[in-house]
Amino acid sequence: MAQALHFAVSSPSPARSLSKLSYSKHSQSLFHRRIPATFVRKPISAVSSDLESSSHQVLVSENGKGGIFLAASPPQTAATTDSSVIEVDAVTEAELKENGFRSTRRTKLVCTIGPATCGFEQLEALAVGGMNVARINMCHGTREWHRTVIERVRRLNEEKGYAVAIMMDTEGSEIHMGDLGGASSAKAEDGEIWTFTVRSFGSSRPERTISVNYDGFAEDVKVGDELLVDGGMVRFEVIEKIGPDVKCRCTDPGLLLPRANLTFWRDGSLVRERNAMLPTISSKDWLDIDFGIAEGVDFIAISFVKSAEVIKHLKSYIAARSRDSDITVIAKIESIDSLKNLEEIIQASDGAMVARGDLGAQIPLEQVPSAQQRIVQLCRQLNKPVIVASQLLESMIEYPTPTRAEVADVSEAVRQRADALMLSGESAMGQYPEKALSVLRSVSLRIERWWREEKHHEAMELAEISSSFAESISEEICNSAAKMANNLEVDALFVYTKTGRMASLLSRCRPDCPIFAFTTTTSVRRRLNLQWGLIPFRLNFSDDMESNLNRTFSLLKARGMIQSGDLVIAVSDMLQSIQVMNVP
Ligand SMILES: Nc1ncnc2c1ncn2[C@@H]1O[C@H](COP(=O)(O)OP(=O)(O)O)[C@@H](O)[C@H]1O
Ligand SMILES: C=C(OP(=O)(O)O)C(=O)O
Ligand SMILES: [K+]
Ligand SMILES: [Mg+2]
Questions:
Q1: Which compartments does it reside in (predicted)?
Q2: What is the CATH code of the structural domain delimited by 102-173+278-453?
């Protein structure tokens, strides 16, 4: 029984308007009569409203495959011919073959790499387990150590066909403890007197003495202040100051980890005077940033961002230092100031991280969940990938299974439809990194399915974000294509995008089906690895959508990733078009 789809298009000239499009459920193909119409004002239910300019025509025309082809502007000339290779990472290929499209995981997974996972085999195990991005934290380890990790991830991608991206995370200039003289941790017992000092020590460090990286520390703290390690994992009270040494009594025992973050509180509020004067990007950070640019990392995550200024400054520096690299700058939201200036920071950044570790040390812990929800929602509105980070599965540093509370925390982050989840200590120095990763994966799949089956009608209302008419065409096309994909229950969305923008506009709509994103450069492909629901492929393609589609179909069918009859909606940023068709 054919089902009529109506596209109502009004045109300045009378009479000519689009009429019926018949959609036959059986052959799953759309057919229609070719009626070119200049689209002026009325919305087309599928492509939606506000394409006003008369210079833009919306053509509904036959595309030889009985498919519908909406082109919002005449096709431009575009790229060159191509090789017939399609690059897809091995994990995705296996998942698609095993579970089919609809159950492919949408939420991306970031793993912090540390001593527990820096070996080639350990990195491979994480990649097989679904790691999309490997994070290196410059707060720890040497540049040489991090370079080795980067090289191993690159080798993994080369040899095994993965597309694991690299995220470099700056140390930042907040106050933290030094190393513990090589010890992996130190236990502070209740009532013990510890010395925090700005002195630096060679090999022999007196017992219960901790060096602090902030020279102003001994001046700024006052007797009576409360000193928090890692946001309250251990607490001390300042009892005496002797020159560079600050004597503190342990009031809340716990484990001291190397280079743990220090904050100090006076009369119940965070002391930030001089601290606030510290630069967001320290001199060491600039050296690390040069290192990251030289190593070609995909993302640079900036710690303790306080304003949009530092992001703009860094982006212009990166642009000047490396013309062609498109390193994505992620703002870590982990201080009171970053919450105060949240919108401007996210607007200026390419993405954000809810860095709950330090955030929970700077604001009362009970405010972290609502701050997380606010940050995730704002990023989604502004079309910026957002990562929920830290302590998701903290107990799995020591235990092979998570607590119920941790599973609920992960579920909530997936329910909020964050783009990505991040493991910190769990994968950097924990005993069960692969188990922790598999918990993230299984919880993601479960909540994503819950969304598709029970909640997708609650898709978030997305405000218009385009800053030009051309951009608004792309935005309208993606919003419509995502809606069509849900209404027609298509198996997948295909998007052909050089810059990745069209792919992220589709990801922003959180459609029920996965989004196959084809792009011509490896760096854009890796960058798309952080965005919800995108399965990035590298493929040389032209502006001839027919040949792009035919080649893509044959390449993916040959790899058993799609099959004839699958229903696909294809979107392209070159032609600004939507096509609905069955895989031949
Ligand atoms: N490159 C590294 N070398 C050694 N230890 C690391 C490294 N990266 C992370 N770690 C360990 O894992 C813990 C959690 O990692 P992360 O959350 O990134 O750092 P932090 O908690 O110090 O901000 C760190 O405190 C540190 O003990
Ligand atoms: C991710 C965070 O930053 P870092 O681990 O670098 O302190 C955090 O504070 O949660
Ligand atoms: K850091
Ligand atoms: Mg932090």
A1: Plastid, Chloroplast
A2: 3.20.20.60
The yes-or-no verdict on residue 71 having pLDDT over 80 is: no
Determine phi and psi for 271, rounding to 5 degrees.
-85, 120
The segment with the largest mean pLDDT, out of 208-217, 259-268, 276-285, 351-360, is: 351-360
Q: For position 45, what pLDDT does the model report? A: 38
CATH class of 3-49+467-511+514-582: alpha beta
Domain range summary for the chain, segments of one domain joined by +: 3-49+467-511+514-582, 102-173+278-453, 180-268
Using CB distances shorter than 6 Å, the residues near ligand 1 are 112, 114-115, 137, 139-141, 257-259, 357, 424-425, 428-429
- What is the distance between the alpha carbons of residues 148 and 109, in angstroms, rounded to a whole number? 21
| Centre of ligand 4 from the C-alpha of residue 110, in Å | 15
> 357 in ligand 2 pocket by Cβ < 6 Å?
yes
Q: Which atom of ligand 1 is nearest to the CA of 146?
A: 1
Distance 204 CA to ligand 4 centre (A): 29
What are the C-alpha distances in Å from 324 to residues 132, 293, 302, 320, 524?
23, 11, 21, 10, 11
Measured distance CA(505)–CA(499) in Å, rounded: 12
Helix runs in 451-500, H state only: 469-487
Strand 133-137 and strand 186-188: the pairing is unpaired
Residues 6+ apart with CB under 8 A from 115: 428, 429
Question: Which ligand 2 atom is nearest residue 390's CA?
Answer: 10
Cα 255 to averaged position of ligand 1 atoms, centre (Å): 14
- Residue to mutate (ligand 2; options 167, 170, 332; most atoms within 8 A of CB): 332
User: What is the homologous superfamily of the domain 180-268 according to CATH?
Assistant: PK beta-barrel domain-like (2.40.33.10)
pLDDT in tens, 320-339: 998 777 899 999 999 999 99
Residue 141 Cα to ligand 1 middle (Å): 9
Ligand number nearest CA of 171 is 3
Please report the ipTM that was assigned to this predicted complex. Answer: 0.99
By most ligand atoms within 8 Å of CB, the mutation choice from 150, 354, 429 for ligand 1 is 429
- CB-count exposure of residue 231 (10 Å: 0-12, 13-18, 19+): buried
Distance 37 CA to ligand 4 centre (A): 55
What 3-state class would DSSP assign to 541?
A: coil
Q: What is the dihedral of CA 229, 230, 233, 238, to 10 degrees?
A: 20
Q: Which pLDDT score, from 0 to 100, does residue 213 have?
A: 85
C-alpha of residue 271 to centroid of ligand 3, in Å? 21
Determine the 3-state secondary structure of 197 from DSSP. Answer: strand
Kindly give the number of the ligand 2 atom that is closest to the alpha carbon of 172: 6
Q: Global pTM?
A: 0.84
Tell me the two tokens of residue 582: 């069955």
Query: Rounded to whole angstroms, how far apart are CA atoms 149 and 142?
Result: 11
First to last CA, the chain: 22
